[in-house]
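Checklist before submission:
- one chain only
- standard amino acids only
- sequence pasted in full

Submission:
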Amino acid sequence: MMCQTELISKSIVRISKRSFAHRLDMLDPNMIEHKGALTRLNNQLDSLYDLLYGSYPTMTESDYQIIVPYLSVLLQTLNGLSEAYNKFDNLWLKEGKERLQMNISAIEEIDHDIRNFKINLRKNPRYTAIVTMAKSL
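Returned file contents:
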């Protein structure tokens, strides 16, 4: 999983840098370029989600601890980018903005699921008791 964790971390860093650059580029009035950039960003976010989803079954707490700082920065950056895009009422960007918001929600959801169902759940004494009881049946 360590190689996969490194791959996820590098992917998150690359997307974070690109998202921040897009946020700065919002000052440029050329919306056609923004549409293409937003499409490419959304495609990368789709791939990141697939990578996180595929890693879910084998994700460990130590893997998550490596990824979570990067993921936190990425989500902050994406939310800032989304806010910047929402300030522009432009039909060229409508579909891309909606897709960006869906991607943000999907990544937030997989992060929530990893944190609560893979990491924190195993630390819950009630869960541990139920699993122990089920194994003894």
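Reviewer check: The CA atoms of residues 122 and 128 lie 7 Å apart.
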